[in-house]
Design a protein that fits this description.
By secondary structure, the chain is α+β, with helices and mostly antiparallel strands. It has ten helices and 17 strands. It binds FE2/S2 (inorganic) cluster (FES) and fe (ii) ion (FE2). Fe (ii) ion binds near residues 197, 203, 208 and 359.
C-alpha cells in the first residue's frame, strides 16, 4: 500500500497518550516522508545572526539532501542560498564556515555575488545569459538573533512566529552576542526520540545530576500544562515582567512553538555546578535584573533554547537518517566577554555537555529497545509527560494535515 496512505491511517488511528508505532522511529520510508512533509516544507532554525557579523561571512548546513549556504551580503542582509552551482551542480562553499568577497565554485570558478547572482563564468558561449544562472534562493528570516530558513517553494507565513518570538528575545540582544563554544553530537536515534526526550523531565532525576542542581524537575516548568496555576512560576513572571521582560507561557495555536520564562531552583542564576553565574558580564546590556531564570523557546522541528542572564544556549536538531540525528549546541555570551577573564569555558559548558551526553545515551537506549519485535506503543505519564504528548500530538496533526492537503491538491491537479 502507498506509504502516504499507511502513515495517514496509522496516525488517524493512533492510540492517544501512547508512543508511536515502531516504523515511525526506525523505517526509512517513514523517515523520507517526515523530511518531505516537515523538514523540506517548514521553517527551520539554522543558526545565529552573530555567527556571520560581516559581509561575506558564511556558514553551510546540510538539510537532508539539500546543501545550503547562509551568507551576509554587502547590504547587511542575511540570505540563504542553495549551495549547488548552476553550472554542473558542484557545491560552491565547501567548508563549514568562512569569509569571502565572492562565492567562487571550486570546480570551474564560476563566481557569484554574495546575493547569489552570477557575476562571471569563464569562456562560455557569446550568447550565454548569466542572469539565468544565479544561485537559487531559499526563504530566510531572522528574528531576535535567530536565523530561520524554509526550503519550500511557498513558505508558510512567518509573521506569527516573528510576532511571538521577538518580544521575548529582543531584550537579550542575541543578534549582537557571540558564540563562545559549539558542539555537534550524533545521537543514534530518530529525530522524534530526541524531541520526546527533550519534552519531559521525568527522566531528569535519574539521569542528570549536574542539570538537576539548578533546573527544576517540576512538569509545570518543562511541560505545557499547569504553569499558570503554579504560584512560584506566576511570582517569577511578575518579577520579570515588572522589569520589562515578557515571561508568560505562550503556546502557538497549532502547538508548534512556545515561549515562556521559568525560574531556576531557588538561588540559582545559571547552569553551573554552583548555580552561580558562569559569565561575569551580563549577556545583554539591556537586562540587569538578577533571578530571571531561563527563557525557554521551542520551535518544532529544529530548536529548543535557554536564555539566562549571563549566557544563552541554543540547540538545533537535524535528522541525518531514520536512526541518526545531529544535535548542535551553541553557548552565546556578550560579544565583549573575554574567555579566561569573564568566563571559564569549561565551567560555562560543563553542565550541558554532560547533559547532552546523558541524553544521547538515553535516546540511543530508547532507539535500541524500540527495534525489538516485542516493542509496542507504551503509555505516557500524564503528570510528567504532558510535553511529550503535546509533541506527538503536534507531529500527528501536522502530518495528517499535510497528507490530506496534498491529497486535495493532487485531486485538483
Ligand atoms: S560546477 Fe561550478 S563552475 Fe563548474
Ligand atoms: Fe534530558
Amino acid at each position: 500500500m502507498d506509504i502516504r496512505n499507511t502513515v495517514l491511517r496509522q496516525l488517524k488511528n493512533r492510540r492517544e497518550g501512547f508512543s508511536l508505532e515502531q516504523p515511525f522511529y526506525i523505517d526509512q520510508d517513514y523517515f523520507k516522508l517526515d523530511m518531505e512533509l516537515i523538514y523540506y516544507r517548514d521553517w527551520l532554525f539554522i543558526g545565529h545572526d552573530c555567527e556571520i557579523p560581516k559581509a561575506g561571512n558564511y556558514f553551510t548546513v546540510q538539510i537532508g539532501d539539500y546543501p545550503i549556504v547562509i551568507v551576509r551580503g554587502r547590504d547587511g542582509q542575511i540570505r540563504a542560498l542553495h549551495n549547488s552551482c548552476r553550472h554542473r551542480g558542484s557545491r560552491v562553499c565547501t567548508s563549514e564556515r568562512g569569509s569571502s568577497a565572492k562565492l567562487v565554485c571550486p570546480y570551474h570558478q564560476w563566481t557569484y555575488e554574495l546575493d547569489g547572482s552570477l557575476l562571471f563564468a569563464r569562456q562560455m558561449a557569446e550568447d550565454f545569459d548569466k542572469t539565468q544562472f544565479n544561485l537559487k534562493q531559499v526563504h530566510c528570516e531572522s528574528v531576535g538573533g535567530y536565523i530561520f530558513i524554509c526550503l519550500a517553494q511557498n513558505a508558510p507565513d512567518f509573521a506569527p512566529v516573528r510576532a511571538s518570538i521577538e518580544p521575548y528575545m529582543k531584550p537579550h540582544r542575541l543578534s549582537e552576542a557571540k558564540v563562545a563554544f559549539q558542539s555537534t553530537i550524533i545521537e543514534k536515534g530518530n529525530w522524534k526520540l530526541v524531541w520526546e526526550n527533550n519534552r519531559e523531565c521525568y527522566h531528569c532525576a535519574g539521569n542528570h545530576p549536574e542539570l538537576c542542581r539548578t533546573f527544576p524537575e517540576a512538569p509545570t516548568v518543562s511541560g505545557v500544562q499547569g504553569a499558570m496555576s503554579d504560584p512560584v512560576i506566576v511570582a517569577h513572571w511578575q518579577h520579570c515582567e515588572a522589569a520589562g521582560l515578557p515571561s508568560e507561557f505562550k503556546l502557538s495555536a497549532d502547538g508548534q512553538y512556545r515561549t515562556t520564562r521559568m525560574p531556576l531552583i531557588e538561588g540559582a542564576e545559571s547552569y553551573t555546578m554552583s548555580g552561580q553565574r558562569a559569565v561575569k558580564r551580563q549577556l545583554s546590556d539591556d537586562v540587569s535584573l538578577g533571578g530571571i531564570g531561563t527563557m525557554l523557546l521551542f520551535h518544532y522541528p529544529t530548536t529548543w533554547n535557554h536564555v539566562l542572564g549571563d549566557h544563552a544556549i541554543s540547540f538545533r536538531v537535524l535528522p541525518l537518517n531514520a536512526e541518526e540525528t545531529a544535535v548542535t549546541t551553541k553557548w552565546l555570551v556578550h560579544k565583549d566577554a573575554v574567555e579566561g577573564v569573564d568566563y571559564d569555558l569549561e565551567e560555562l559548558t560543563h553542565v550541558w555537555t554532560e547533559t547532552n551526553d546523558q541524553d544521547r545515551r538515553i535516546v540511543e537506549e530508547n532507539a535500541f529497545g524500540i527495534h525489538s519485535p516485542a516493542y509496542e506503543p507504551g503509555p505516557y505519564s500524564e503528570m510528567h509527560e504532558g510535553g511529550v504528548m503535546q509533541f506527538v500530538e503536534w507531529y500527528s496533526n501536522f502530518m495528517i494535515n499535510r497528507l490530506q492537503g496534498d491529497q486535495k491538491l493532487s485531486a485538483v491537479a
